[in-house]
UniProtKB/TrEMBL annotation:
Domain of life of the native organism: Bacteria
Protein known as: Phosphatase
InterPro entries: His_Pase_superF_clade-1, His_PPase_superfam, PG/BPGM_mutase_AS, Phosphoglycerate_Mutase
Organism: Alkalicoccobacillus murimartini
Signal peptide positions (record): none
UniProt keywords, alphabetically: Hydrolase
PROSITE patterns per UniProt: PG_MUTASE
Short name of any one Pfam family annotated for the protein: His_Phos_1
CDD domains in the record: HP_PGM_like (cd07067)
Length: 196
């Protein structure tokens, strides 16, 4: 089982400022969201043998809160699980960005501007990273903490666009559960928030 969780609310989520790979910490609400999800995991007797997280604070802090009461050997940080790099757009208010680039978060197949990482490149690194994790953990209960845009791009690829990018926004600390079987992913739950 692979359990992919979007990080808790960050300070910039609150003010709707584009984060990308800027290293912004969780807000107080984000910490509470992570604590509630940790309690849900314990109540449901869900434990993880492996934990992987993006190295950015908001994901790493979420992973720490989620596993605080679990007997795990350690949390492995992976830069490949980071959010998309938005170049010069990072730090700007999303409302201002939408005025000039309305499709900036779902812009498949167009030349990149402002030093942005292409959606395809971000999608490819996420698919490679999560596939490698799935092969390495061989079906053991595994937690992956990452970012909304990155998770959605991954899901877009493995479901041929049925879910993911352009289909909806992932909630903070939402759970997406996958099964790795016969070298492919099966989505068992998407954007699930029973703890909120």
């Amino acid at each position: 089982m692979l359990c992919i969780v979007r990080h808790g609310e960050s300070e910039w989520n609150v003010i709707k400022r584009l984060q990308g790979q800027k290293d912004i910490p969780l807000s107080k609400k984000g910490i509470q969201q992570a604590k509630k999800l940790a309690t849900h995991f314990i109540d449901q007797n869900i434990h993880f043998e492996y934990v992987f997280t993006s190295d950015l604070k908001r994901a790493n802090q979420t992973a720490q809160w989620l596993t605080e009461a679990m007997p795990i050997s350690g949390i492995k940080t992976e830069t490949a699980l980071r959010e998309r790099y938005y170049g010069e757009l990072e730090g700007r208010l999303i409302t201002d960005i939408v005025d000039t680039l309305p499709d900036f978060q779902i812009n498949f197949g167009v030349p990149m501007r402002y030093g942005m990482e292409s959606l395809e490149d971000m999608q490819e690194r996420m698919v490679t990273a999560i596939t490698n994790i799935a092969k390495m953990t061989e079906g053991a209960p595994t937690l992956i903490v990452s970012h909304g845009g990155a998770i959605n791009a991954f899901l877009h690829r493995i479901t041929n666009g049925e879910i993911g990018t352009g289909k909806g926004k992932l909630a903070n600390t939402s759970i997406t559960q996958l099964r790795w079987l016969d070298d492919s992913f099966e989505v068992e739950a998407y954007n699930h928030t029973p703890h909120l």
